[in-house]
Amino acid sequence: MKNIWKQKKIKVKELPSGDTLNINVISVSGHPGPHIYLQAGIHGAEVQGNALIIQLIDFLKSYKATINGTITMVPLANPNGTNNKNNTYTNGRFNANTGDNWNRNFIDLVTLKRASFEKFCHKNKQTENKVLFTHFKKWLKQTLIKIEKELKDKNQIHENNEINLILQKLAIEADGVLDLHTGPIATYYLYTPEYAKEVSKYLKFENTLVIPHYFAGAFDEVTFHPYTELKKYFFSEFGRDLTLPFESFTLELGSEEAFDLESGKRDVARILPYLKYKGVFPSNMRIKPSPIKNQTIPLENFKTIYSKQSGLFHFDIKPGETFKKGDVIGRYFNAQKIKIKNNKIDHLGIEELKADYSGKVINIFPSAVVPQGCELLQVFKY
Amino acid sequence: MKNIWKQKKIKVKELPSGDTLNINVISVSGHPGPHIYLQAGIHGAEVQGNALIIQLIDFLKSYKATINGTITMVPLANPNGTNNKNNTYTNGRFNANTGDNWNRNFIDLVTLKRASFEKFCHKNKQTENKVLFTHFKKWLKQTLIKIEKELKDKNQIHENNEINLILQKLAIEADGVLDLHTGPIATYYLYTPEYAKEVSKYLKFENTLVIPHYFAGAFDEVTFHPYTELKKYFFSEFGRDLTLPFESFTLELGSEEAFDLESGKRDVARILPYLKYKGVFPSNMRIKPSPIKNQTIPLENFKTIYSKQSGLFHFDIKPGETFKKGDVIGRYFNAQKIKIKNNKIDHLGIEELKADYSGKVINIFPSAVVPQGCELLQVFKY
Amino acid sequence: MKNIWKQKKIKVKELPSGDTLNINVISVSGHPGPHIYLQAGIHGAEVQGNALIIQLIDFLKSYKATINGTITMVPLANPNGTNNKNNTYTNGRFNANTGDNWNRNFIDLVTLKRASFEKFCHKNKQTENKVLFTHFKKWLKQTLIKIEKELKDKNQIHENNEINLILQKLAIEADGVLDLHTGPIATYYLYTPEYAKEVSKYLKFENTLVIPHYFAGAFDEVTFHPYTELKKYFFSEFGRDLTLPFESFTLELGSEEAFDLESGKRDVARILPYLKYKGVFPSNMRIKPSPIKNQTIPLENFKTIYSKQSGLFHFDIKPGETFKKGDVIGRYFNAQKIKIKNNKIDHLGIEELKADYSGKVINIFPSAVVPQGCELLQVFKY
Amino acid sequence: MKNIWKQKKIKVKELPSGDTLNINVISVSGHPGPHIYLQAGIHGAEVQGNALIIQLIDFLKSYKATINGTITMVPLANPNGTNNKNNTYTNGRFNANTGDNWNRNFIDLVTLKRASFEKFCHKNKQTENKVLFTHFKKWLKQTLIKIEKELKDKNQIHENNEINLILQKLAIEADGVLDLHTGPIATYYLYTPEYAKEVSKYLKFENTLVIPHYFAGAFDEVTFHPYTELKKYFFSEFGRDLTLPFESFTLELGSEEAFDLESGKRDVARILPYLKYKGVFPSNMRIKPSPIKNQTIPLENFKTIYSKQSGLFHFDIKPGETFKKGDVIGRYFNAQKIKIKNNKIDHLGIEELKADYSGKVINIFPSAVVPQGCELLQVFKY
């Protein structure tokens, strides 16, 4: 038996000219098994995930054996964002028409349909795990379809939830979700929900951010949140402690606007151990051990440093590098602050930004031109 | 005694070039009395409020008597937004750097400092009204200053809350707040909190939207929310029913990108009865009765109709006009849907949008080029 | 014999997502006769021409007789521009990626292929008119195809000339070209080349701008320039004075971002006399005489008034209205210029703009927020 | 005698909010001598020149001897462009309001005032070189002031020529002009006019583009063009061959959006030999010989390769690297071209771009998201 490849073109947007934007959903299936879902570029400028997907397709194409389960891959998952060029820049983070962050308005099924969720829990409180989770996937799917119908009937489908619903439906029955992003100018890092911290180590990332189980509308959250709610409800109501067979992660693959096919091969190597762990590949498959050591940090220690000034900024420390308290992180240059007094240079217009604590730089503002109050850099605080 | 005029230039932003953006805060004071605060253009393209402010200054300049209290006026309250031109367009609704709506991230004092708030309530549970509210203003001011200091110490002042804090501080001791906005292409309408519904009738607006007392981050909300929380707490905890001496309203003065000094005079006439009601003018001051009849409607009947299609859109019903269920609201034109069959025109590419219910058009999308899912129009549903 | 309708979808752009933008070219043909070409929206926000085209299609659909010749109509001729939304604004005048005005970089065949042009003239110096112009159309077509091939071979097809070449090819054999535009906020006006001044009166426009015969890259120019060069060459070299059977006009149909189907009907009435003059309709066809009186003015009297200041601007005179020297055209408001002195209002921040000469306002800046140096208004100077 | 430092704040723009943008012009003077003018960032995102200027100031500050002449330095020479942020991107190349390239509309004195220029030449046809050039500088200055006055009187100062005139006036009496730019993502390169090819070697750049003496509106051109016209006129009319004591160069210092103070030191080392050649430093000053070898190439061999497709693009060759005919320059990825046939991967969606000739990559598109027809890369063709 061979792996079966399929593709499906889905319309995600009609343009004012009457033309349409579409996504090309690729999937490959072998023996019965887990369903892994990958998408790249919900933020339109964060395109490196596409290199991972192509190289994964290429890897699977030449993989001789039959895989277990299905891998669904959505390259360029948000053509709205990727097509939105402003001069050379890809203005892909926010919907240019509404200001909304493309990765914020996904729909939280459990909150929206709480009564139905609790009814489901009570009905299945003694159902054995495997069947329970199969039922739960069905409940998720039916609930999403119901919500979509309600929105349509009330004419409440706006520009963002149009594409959100399409992507959510594609991932609704998955057992593992990898949402491929990048930082602005960034090192590699990973977001994992707290409960999946151990599993996250199968993804070979130098830096791992552990996020709590609340819901803020991002794709990783929207996919894991029903499961963490299920776990919470079963434990608090029935005293039953479920082990969740589902995880969802946001993978930050370096810098935006960059697309490197060679890095894409290395990116595949980062996720292969996870695919093997999930059972896509047989347990005796040989994978070269990764030299990467995961470093895990709670979300509260992931700090944004806002720019106190405006001007040009020189970074003395680069993403991936560590710093100690008191180190010069970088230097502001403000042209209006060059001062001459008594015919001599009194001030060069340069001021240092020093670290208030020790840590590691994760990502930095992708332009040297920094407005006051911008997210100058994000760091792991040790 | 004469009215005393003052002005104060406040820096609200440093630009990358090192130059600064500033607001010019104008105030006029007479005898002791109420403090009324007006600001125009927190959404940078919504500039008609400036015409109201200039004409109010002109009116007060030639007003012979001494007013009671103080009126503070902030024209061009958000230079970030007003200066943000993109070709001829003023891209003033969202922060171009962060995507944030400029009128969403104001700081909710009571939620942030709940313990301190409750302590205040208990301490003052028997304080008589006048003194209570004087104390409350002090608490508001001190709390805001404290929050600002905390944000600064933690380096958490980002681009939006920089200006938010400045404007919030200017209004923190006001007895009445008028936040001057406009719709996209719109008729005149007004937002009032539920508790101020009766007072809102002193503002002569054809259409009044009654909003509930929760907090979503807008300027009107941030200013009234502490008062509604106070009222709620005193009633539920002490059984004491306070009459609030404070109101805050959002005034929608027609269409964005428009600035009409003659309309500005009429806009002043719309607010004079409120200023008189608040005591700024003596109760025997004669004001010509306004022919405008307020129509009030709950927020839940204020409906957004999202565009189901993309293309060009012809509006058959204009802002301020009413429609019946089944009426043609407008017509989509999609150039790709012009169809020719057997050498004949089969379809002109035009489709009608019909009303699902009766109502009145309040505002419409300001461009005939409509993307799928945009806010095509907002209506009062009868 | 019936009129034959045809349509043709032409791809004009591939997007980064791999999707495509297309135009839907509609044509109708009857008996042999003239070829009239209309296109709407090369500037993407100037969409009223689409209403004219739809209403013309509707008119022709119900026209019982057979027309002479062919009418080619291209609605939404530049999907690049029309789809380029920035919030609610259609950023359709300049290519967002290159800064180029979409109506400037058309290709001037005669300048580029001067030697071939002169050879053509000499070869045909005694050819009788009708045959001469038939040959000339062939020369135009072959030359354009040749240039396109050369550009492709040298890999010099950039974003703008991709669509330019497509539109130029569609119009290359036309006998009359109507390029449908609008102003920003504007009255109706028309551009005619000097030599077609008399014919232009068949287009019922209140205001007509006469432009000289040089070439600046706009679509009307690119289509008439080869003909004016031909006329010039024949006269100067052979002393033969050709009467040109071709005209091309730019029609300014009011304001950008506006689309009014009812106005579209009136817009059709403005061009019917021209279509009749060209022979599309029989000479005995009855057309209601238009009450519109053309006013003609040379290009040098069409003046741009740049904004001397920044701020908000109130227009006292609207497009279509006349003014006398010394009249107040409008008033600037600069919030920083509100001045208080000795506790009194010293300056309201308002300054008048007065007319240096008498004239008529043709179009105005479409936003009240005016940056220093912007094209504040354009006028006919009497 | 010590070097004298001065600074001058010049207002270059009034904003709609009434605030102003300014430049901070820094100069240092010693003994009488040449006037060298440097400016950075006329394209607002090209900020590395500011690092050069700061490091040059720092170098001169600690330079113990007295320099000859004056060095004028304008950091952040175009605050309009540098302040124009769109999300994190600095949209600094084109005027966001007019679409104009900020480095294109400078004023060509000789063309505009041809009669006066020729009169000047005739009057000075026998004037000895030194005096001639002193007179010529005066003519340049007076002519520019005259043109400015005429534009102002006719109300023709638009947004671009406002700042253009200011910068042109600052440089009008210079003996050497260094306009500091960067490419998008680029190696270091230099533009020199043909006549200054030999002198250009004192600027230590790996790649030098030789441009002809016509005028296209850029700052380097506007400054050297009067001199090349003078040389041309004197030679053709009087048979006198002038050696020009003036040069103007555009220096491309790497990539836009980047600001590196350490590179700034190396950038200073690149220009020191030129300053010494001009006489700013004594001829016996020791400068470490630069290891950089200038490679010179005529403008016609500087080729732009436009993108034939849309999609993501992986560059196989980086700026500064050479390639041979047939080499793979990079690879397009088009998500819609992934094709599955008979349940197998038929096409990965990847296509190669091969070189048609040998050459060196100078700069590349700064985003992996490439629209069809964009300037994908610029190369030196060998």
Topology diagram in text:
Four copies of one chain form a homotetramer.
Chain A: E1 4-14, E2 20-29, E3 31-40, H1 48-62, E4 68-74, H2 79-82, E5 85-86, E6 89-90, H3 109-112, H4 114-123, H5 129-153, H6 159-171, E7 176-183, E8 185-186, E9 188-193, E10 207-211, H7 219-238, E11 247-255, H8 261-278, E12 295-298, E13 302-306, E14 311-315, E15 322-323, E16 328-341, E17 344-354, E18 359-364, E19 369-370, E20 375-381
Parallel strand pairs in A: 3-4, 3-7, 7-11, 9-10, 10-12
Antiparallel strand pairs in A: 1-2, 2-4, 5-6, 8-18, 9-11, 13-20, 14-16, 14-19, 15-18, 16-17, 18-20
Helix pairs in contact in A: 1-8
- Tally of DSSP β-strands of chain A: 20
Oligomer description: homotetramer
Q: How many separate helices of chain A?
A: 8
Proportion of beta-strand residues of chain A: 25-35%
The CATH level-2 architecture of the largest domain in chain A is identified as 3-Layer(aba) Sandwich
| Rg of chain A (C-alpha, Å) | 23 Å
CATH superfamily of the largest domain in chain A: Zn peptidases
- The low-confidence parts of chain A are none
Alpha-beta classification of chain A: alpha+beta
Largest interface: A-D, 61 and 61 residues
What name does the CATH topology of the largest domain in chain A carry? Aminopeptidase
Q: Largest sheet of chain A, described in full?
A: 9 strands, mixed
> What topology, given as strand order, has the largest sheet of chain A?
1-2-4-3-7-11-9-10-12
Shape of chain A: globular
